[in-house]
């Protein structure tokens, strides 16, 4: 979608209307879901005006009588009229009559749809949408829907250690944790799991310098190392440093994505036993989900939700920020956390089309060409690709779009919103519609003093950890695009009991709704509410190739007996 529909003239952007969910459409027919109940009425009218010949109505005889009447009238005016001319006139009159009947049936409906008011109105940079009544479950998921599962991946105190002696493991394993904080976290979880599969000793992973943030952060700068090693002592042997100060020279580089446990046993274990020390690089998404034993997936959850513990100063500062969010209005109030992914790098990499002037679009095209020349090529194919991505829900939501979605869900203007984001592409102009509709947008820089944050500026990863924890503690978490940050938060909030609301917008449906020039506000609100009833972090059954980081339901959670 190149622009929100509330800024354009009627009919300027035509696309198929969204399918209504939850009623009004029979799955067995192809009726237009926005015109329910019209077919039967139309069929009745057609039966009245054009009855079939079987019922004694308009058969061939009646058609000939009709044509004879027209021909006699025509010959009265022009005695020289030929039979062929009579036939043409008869056919033309019949077509005109049919078109008139059809028009009388459908034009009123078309006219009413063309006069449906836009979703919202835009005055300058401000967006004004009709108010929506706040639903009862605005700030939390229904209690009845969030009590059927409980977390069960924690370590049991009576559990016997399955770790072999120091000299009895198959060797020392080292994994490279690259990328941002959350990608590194997932990598380490997978590293512990692979060490368990291979019965190896894991060397505490290093957090490699991130290419974007240029941050040189060590594991001990963010996480409690002693807690990490001690909590997993019955699962995997972990050492802090490479033994004997011997550099690792053996690498395994050909591990496929989402490899099975058997792949590691067949291909990595023999080399590890031979060399006694081995490094896995790269190691992002190099362990599958469905093709590993359930106890390995449970171990990954144990690492993610229990073994990882941020340093006390990070935890304390995040508690202060969360408390300040709740007390901004003088009382204890709920707050929303919004992960707004609309940085220049994300916008460029998405290769989607967004609202902007010609100059802005030219600058974005030049940026894409410089950063991703092989994907950009000559740029001629990008418009078609952008449309396909938007229809498939693969484009980041713009600040103005998420503003309209939140308002349609019932969140009022006074909502306190903590924004976790980098520098938004387009700056204040791009943020203006969201800020005008929800003026209480707050960042950590506005909640904390410079002195308080200076301690964390030594490591950019520490600032990311603060954002992570404040979002995790929020009453409602809203994501605008995919990524490890959002999936880890949604997964953790589910693991904590599904009561905390985590909204994952249906970007594909929203693209259709925003692009429909006839979509009225009431219909839009209905679509948003119905669609997102099951997209708020409630228990959701897993499926093949599911992602346990976003949905740890099985095997990391256990069904609660209804009798308890």
UniProtKB/TrEMBL annotation:
CDD domains: O-FucT_plant. Keywords: Carbohydrate metabolism, Fucose metabolism, Glycoprotein, Glycosyltransferase, Membrane, Transferase, Transmembrane, Transmembrane helix. GO terms for biological process: fucose metabolic process. The chain crosses the membrane at residues 88-111. It is found in: Membrane. It is a single-pass membrane protein. GO terms for molecular function: glycosyltransferase activity. Residues 1-55 are annotated as: Disordered. One of its GO terms (cellular component) is membrane. Belongs to the glycosyltransferase GT106 family. PANTHER family: O-FUCOSYLTRANSFERASE 2-RELATED, PROTEIN PECTIC ARABINOGALACTAN SYNTHESIS-RELATED. This is O-fucosyltransferase family protein. It comes from Spirodela intermedia.
